[in-house]
Amino acid sequence: MPQLVVEQGKAIGIIGESGSGKSLTLLSIASLLPSGLIAKGSLIWSPGNSGVDLTQLKSAEIRSLLGKQIGMVFQEPMSALNPQRTCGWQLQESLRIHNAGVTFEHAKLACIEALKLTGIEDPDRIYGSYPHQISGGQRQRVMIAMATINKPALVLADEPTTALDPQTGVKIMQTLVDACKLNNSSLLVVSHDIVLLSKFCSHIVVMRKGETIVSGTVEDVLGSNNRHAYVNELLNSIPKGARNAVVSGNAQLIGENLGKTYKMADSAHMALEDIRFELAAGETLAVIGYSGSGKSTLAKLLTGLDRADTGSLFFRGENILNKRPTGVQMVFQDPYSSLNVSMRNSEIVSEVLRLKGVGKPECNLRCEELFNLTGLDTALMQQFPSSLSGGQRQRLCIARALASNPQVLILDEAIAALDPLVQKQILDLLLEIQKKTGIIYIFITHSPEAAEYMSSQVLCLEAGKVHFYGRAENWFTHSGGA
Q1: 162-211 confidence digits (pLDDT tens)
Q2: For the chain, what is the radius of gyration of the CA atoms?
Q3: Which of 318, 422, 441, 478 could lock 391 by a disulfide, CB 3.0 to 4.6 Å apart?
Q4: What is the mean pLDDT of residues 418-434?
């Protein structure tokens, strides 16, 4: 790509569709490219008076910069965080490895303060929790705290607001920008949220297929005068309008008085209380709310990945709560960490079919059908998940979930990490599948536009309790989706 200059104290945003090279640009700067990939050209690092080419440094020299001078927020926090260590331990490691002699007590105070700066309201609980015990949005905040705790000269942020609701996303971006201004450091941020970047970045770089299409100030790139056709395409791809499908029939999935409390060593956290809903075949329930409101906990209860403390879940008259398997399938928030990267793409789907007793000839045929149904080229069947773009990995997750012919499918932030173009494609794909099969969707999302586009009902959660439940048109008409 052409020369990219990140000036001291400036915030620069990179946008583009999945597979355009945004993340690879950041990984090149941090010398974290996957095996087999080599960065060409020069990466001149000059936070002081003299500059050095990062591509010419030895591994030990790069490691001394990473975390201390260059902080990074990775796209998929569940993959980046160590599942065997508490969040506090990992924050402490990030701080103490670059600050010899700091005491445990001082480091803990610094970690708690770093968590507070990212908007976490209960930092002590998060500090003592493991990554799987907190929400996706909270995991992303932990990653941001780790990237900024040493006040680096440059922060590389790869989709830092993906798992966050819009309001929290704005707060997180403001936190990143304020931290950079306070430390006179720079911010290079990748995001598919064009509007968000336009608010916080002074310059925008637009990428497509590994090349820079256009770059300049926000006004130059996003202004209405002489706007590039590809930029128009990105701006116009955001889902708009409400779903008009009329669904009739008796309720097939009924949740009653669902509740869950997580007990810690010396405390308890009420994650859900008295959750109720009813859904007929072909309906979509949009579950919305701030990060940590209980959305993902609800998904775990419905799929049997966690046990409810109270309530019932009836599917076609049978109480399936706390039973395994429930028959409810799920597309997870983080596609890469939910896929077995050592298996070929076809094996990931066919594994489900084999467990259902499908023979090999029929299994291969059904696998091809699922690839076609989800818009995946069958030529990708013999490749591995690492060779796929974010949008393709999400399609693969959907294909795997559909392999068992589920009547209920939970989509936990299934489009959060995707650019607007791919988001619209995935949403339309899901609606087409629903039209053909009558499948019930539980659509967990932070996007009001996507919720309005997909849903027939809305369940809005706030601190684990029902803030609103009813028809989608009532929610979006009277509250504006707020």
Answers
A1: 767 777 778 878 878 887 787 778 899 998 888 889 999 999 999 988 88
A2: 23
A3: 422
A4: 82
What is the spatial distance between Cα 115 and Cα 146, in angstroms, rounded to a whole number? 9
Choose among 194, 212, 242, 173: nearest CA to 22: 212
Alpha helices in 252-356 (DSSP H): 295-303, 345-355
For residue 155, the tally of other CB atoms under 10 A from its CB is 25
pLDDT for 480: 57
Cα(228)–Cα(221) distance, integer angstroms = 7
**Whats the size of the chain, residue-wise?**
482
Give the angle subtended at the CA of 14 by the CAs of 82 and 233, to the nearest 5°. Answer: 120
Residue 48 Cα distances to 8, 69, 77, angstroms = 10, 11, 31
3-state secondary structure (DSSP) of residue 157: strand
Superfamily of domain 251-478: P-loop containing nucleotide triphosphate hydrolases (3.40.50.300)
Q: CATH assignment of 11-236, given 3.30.1300.10, 3.40.50.150, 3.40.50.300, 3.10.120.10? A: 3.40.50.300
Q: Average of pLDDT values for 290-319?
A: 89
Write down the H helix ranges in 131-187: 136-148, 166-183
Report the C-alpha gap between 304 and 322 in whole angstroms. 6
What CA–CA distance (Å, rounded) separates 308 from 326? 13
Nearest to 454 by CA among 285, 333, 298, 296: 285
Q: How far apart are CA 193 and CA 195, in angstroms?
A: 6
Cα(101)–Cα(457) distance, rounded to whole angstroms?
55
Name residues whose C-beta falls within 8 Å of residue 210's C-beta, 6 or more positions apart in sequence.
1, 20, 21, 24
b/e 61-84 (16+ beta carbons within 10 angstroms → b): ebeebbbbbbbbbbbbbbebbeee
Q: Smallest Cα–Cα separation from 253: which of 219, 291, 303, 206?
A: 303
Q: How far is 339 from 393, CA to CA, in rounded Å?
A: 8
